[in-house]
Amino acid sequence: MSDYRKIAFIGAGNMTQSIVGGMCQSGYPADHIFISNPSPEKLEKMSAKHGVTTSQNNAEVAAQADVIVLAVKPQLMQDVCAALRKEVSDLASKLIVTIAAGIRIEKYYQYLGDDIRMVRVMPNTPSLVGEGMSGLVADSKATDDDKAYIEKAFKGVGATQWVSTEDELDILGAVAGSGPAYFFEFMASLQKAAVELGYDSDKARQMVQQTALGAAKMAMNSDLELSELRSQVTSKGGSTAKGVEVYQQADVDGISAKAVKAAVTRNQEMAKLF
Ligand SMILES: NC(=O)C1=CN([C@@H]2O[C@H](COP(=O)(O)OP(=O)(O)OC[C@H]3O[C@@H](n4cnc5c(N)ncnc54)[C@H](O)[C@@H]3O)[C@@H](O)[C@H]2O)C=CC1
Ligand SMILES: O=C(O)[C@@H]1CCC=N1
Fold it and tell me: Predicted ipTM?
């Protein structure tokens, strides 16, 4: 099968916009991308921006595609799947991909029939700028071709990692899926701290985001442990040591552990609820 299968996104929200934006930039042909959403505004924007085909009818886009990406909120998934099952006759001939947090593959067999082939992907919004981090786990029916195809599609918008269990995908989701929000929260707090000391807000934002980018690039280009990279900035008796000490006293490790655990727990709850 071609590198570019026809792919339909059900739901045109933040995550679909990020993935499709990144896919189009990476050269995925727009005439192979279909998107549905109940309201027309996001669809109009996406078709104007990328030239993709859109519809307010889920079944219409799903029927045209070889791959269906379920990209609605977990609480809507059961109803959306029930309608697709009723209206699209050959779901078993398509690859079903879901990006929803929590919901287990087993549930999709109940919703769509146990003859479907499935991959669960946990992406994140930096896919929009080609710097996504996506986790993937396939069921036993997905073929090698399916797995190669979906890995390549998501590699087009960033890095990918296969995980072997859905429990691991919950962890990946809690770190990488949710992670941009944690980094934005932290970046905004640094910006605020500079502004409170009298620094210009726009300039504070620029220095925070450039520093975040620089730190991430250094980490990516280095074999050193992250703690060693931190040490390299921390001159003995210098200013960084004073700042780092404040974070350590506030137990930054404990805070991250609690945050990731809380997100994993919510993924597990959603697995039960939806
Ligand atoms: N936003 C993120 O950073 C990430 C989100 N996810 C997952 O992606 C999925 C979507 O999340 P977001 O894009 O953030 O949500 P969103 O709320 O931005 O988008 C959901 C879209 O689905 C549409 N929708 C509602 N009912 C529908 C229906 N019956 N049929 C078709 N579309 C319908 C909504 O109008 C909306 O445009 C969720 O399941 C979430 O767990 C996964 C990883 C990261
Ligand atoms: O908040 C959520 O549930 C989704 C999953 C990861 C990021 N957003």
Answer: 0.99
